[in-house]
Amino acid sequence: MRGDEPGGPIRWRLHIPVAPERVYEALASDAGRAAFWAEAAVERAGAIEFRFINGYSYSSPILERQPPGVWAIDYMGGEARFELAPDGRGGTDLLLTHAGVAIDEWNEVHAGWLNVLFPLKVWLMQGPDIRNHDPQRSWDQGYADQ
What is the spatial distance between Cα 73 and Cα 12, in angstroms, rounded to a whole number? Predict the structure, then answer.
């Protein structure tokens, strides 16, 4: 977002023309997260066990749940916070803030969030999973549609 700088929090805004309750459910459910974020993202004992197409796994403790307005996790060593606000027309204005990202990883993480947010929007609006699901064509090889 305008004004973001390496070392500071990453922020992205996204408008999704579906109700905040549906966006929240996508973030807060195993099936939702698997449809747009990771190959699997199962909640166990208050943490999300993410498994990505490149074989990487990460456990993200859930930090906050306030349906349908806030969902936050510890993600890759920093807080990833999704704030969902009604847009007044039946849709959602989403603000993602990811604080605590290491400066040497900031640019990649900043860009990488678009690989979560756009598939979320498409899946909620139209239903398809737009990722390629090919381990030979992952973020590690420079593919944005992993």
Answer: 16
Q: Rounded to an integer, what distance in angstroms lies between the CA atom of residue 103 and that of residue 143?
A: 22
Burial-class residue 36 by CB neighbours within 10 Å (0-12, 13-18, 19+): buried
**Tens digits of per-residue pLDDT, 17-29?**
999 999 999 999 9
**Token duo for residue 136:** 């030979």
121: number of Cβ within 10 Å: 20
CA 26 to CA 61: how far, in whole Å?
Answer: 17
Q: Is the pTM of this model over 0.90?
A: yes
Each residue's pLDDT tens digit, 109-134: 999 999 999 999 999 999 888 888 88
